[in-house]
């Protein structure tokens, strides 16, 4: 049950930041904290909901009793389906409902504070630039392993660029004009940036950044920020085979 102790967002930017915080909390529950989340969703308990908080935390709790509620409520009774289906399918189902809830909360604030057409459109575009919770949890977000700069030993992958073979029709001594060289360099840089931009953290869903340490799971081959899975470069040096929290917690459910 959420009592909203956080400041109520009133602008497009504030609503988007609220959305990102809640989304971050839900992703943690369904990835890095999945073991704890699984245990809290006891089917023997009453109807439970998964709440994401603006400060990137989460909680499993009973729904609010007031009618109508202060905010739109998440899916009710997620715990009842836990043991009746494969864990992967159950987590995916919770993720889909979580995405729906996040949108409803964001546009509830928009309606409450009178967002116009242009503001609603801008808010949706900002939200749409982020991968959904479902995409992060299921791994359906494109993971460009080749573009990620760190391996499990925390060393930088060498960036090797092959020079194009010289055309047979071009004289050996011929050189590209400065304009052609500049255009070629720009194209290579754009391709590199596109590849790096396609690499997303399997925990938080954020894009790759040059100044951040990343580590790859040797089981599912998804990449994670070191800070999201609590792995430092020094610790990674001593890991022979890294398993992400999701792969570590996988086991046969009865």
UniProtKB/TrEMBL annotation:
Record bears the keyword Zinc-finger: yes
InterPro entries given in the database record: Alfin (IPR045104), Alfin_N (IPR021998), PHD_AL_plant (IPR044104), Zinc_finger_PHD-type_CS (IPR019786), Znf_FYVE_PHD (IPR011011), Znf_PHD (IPR001965), Znf_PHD-finger (IPR019787), Znf_RING/FYVE/PHD (IPR013083)
Keywords recorded for this protein, A-Z: Chromatin regulator, Metal-binding, Nucleus, Transcription, Transcription regulation, Zinc, Zinc-finger
Keyword Kinase recorded: no
PHD-type domain sequence ranges: 198-250
Biased composition (Acidic residues): 180-196
Region of interest (Disordered), residue spans: 147-196
PANTHER family for the chain: CPG BINDING PROTEIN, PHD FINGER PROTEIN ALFIN-LIKE 6
Binding partners and assembly: Interacts with H3K4me3 and to a lesser extent with H3K4me2.
Function according to Swiss-Prot or TrEMBL: Histone-binding component that specifically recognizes H3 tails trimethylated on 'Lys-4' (H3K4me3), which mark transcription start sites of virtually all active genes.
Protein's name according to its UniProt entry: PHD finger protein ALFIN-LIKE
Species the sequence originates in: Coffea arabica
